Amino acid sequence: MPAPILVETEPLDARRRFDDLSVLSETVAQGSQSPCVVLWRTAQALSVTRSEARLPAFAEALERLDLAGWPIVVRRGGGSAFPIGPGTLQVSLLTRKGVPDVDFDRLYDRLAGLVRQGLANLGMPSRVGEIANAFCRGRYDISVDGRKVAGLSQAWGGKGAVVAEASILIAADVRGGAEAVNRFHALAGSDLRCDPQASASLVQLAGIAAETAVDALLAAAKPIAEDWAADLALPNR
């Protein structure tokens, strides 16, 4: 069956969205759903890693940030804390172990290519590489004019599920998100800190409407789904 594109842009509760994505990824891993591309949004939240959930004062950070309007959701992928919400678009590639040509670097390259093509559709040249002092910095940061606009992560599950995900700052309050990230690290007992100026939203940089950016990324996702329908299709069972 063809690899579909699923669009779920209503900003629902973050934990619900992550749970729904986990169920879908397991369905893909079991072979009853083909690999797919999912574009989705959540209500405001702070996405943190499993390793950060083991920080000495994580429970206190969880409670205090929830009261401040930043509920914490623990993701399976790597990196570090990243703010998500209605102004952030999540793009997830869902596949499974054993599908031909699926490996760590190839998935990152596909996903980075999708995001960069979406930015090119908006007339925004971009580059891939770590941005110093950005929240959740990593070698697959995507930047425009030297400021991070998207971050990528991956999770390979024990049951065969593979999820590569991009968090894209469309119309996010970057300063407010960075402050929440820094507060989380301080409360939880981490030495990590970020600089709000190291990141920017697409709306901030280009003065475009948020939905224009979403449409550009959706257009960029279509060739990925078509490619997967051709060369990443599930084997017959």
Strand order of the largest sheet: 1-2-6-10-9-8-7
CATH-defined fold name: BirA Bifunctional Protein, domain 2
The fourth-level CATH homologous superfamily is Bira Bifunctional Protein, Domain 2
Large-scale geometry: globular
- Tally of domains: 1
Describe the sheet with the most strands.
7 strands, mixed
Number of helices: 6
Q: Topology as H/E string?
A: EHEEHEEEHEEEEHHH
* Helix/strand class: alpha+beta
CATH architecture: 2-Layer Sandwich
Segments where pLDDT lies below 50 for 5+ residues? 233-237
CATH class category: Alpha Beta
Mean pLDDT: 89
Helix fraction, binned, reads 25-40%
Content of β-strand: 25-35%
In short:
The protein has 237 residues and is of the alpha+beta class.
Q: What would your notes on this structure say?
A:
With 237 residues, this protein is of the alpha+beta class. It has a single domain, classed as BirA Bifunctional Protein, domain 2 (2-Layer Sandwich), CATH 3.30.930.10. The protein has six helices and ten strands. It has helices at residues 14-30, 58-67, 104-121, 174-188, 202-206, 210-231; strands at residues 5-12, 36-42, 45-49, 72-75, 82-84, 88-96, 127-128, 142-144, 147-156, 161-169. The strands form two sheets. It has a seven-stranded mixed sheet with strand order 1-2-6-10-9-8-7. Strands 4-3-5 form a three-stranded mixed sheet. 43% of the residues are buried. Mean pLDDT is 89; it is low at 233-237.
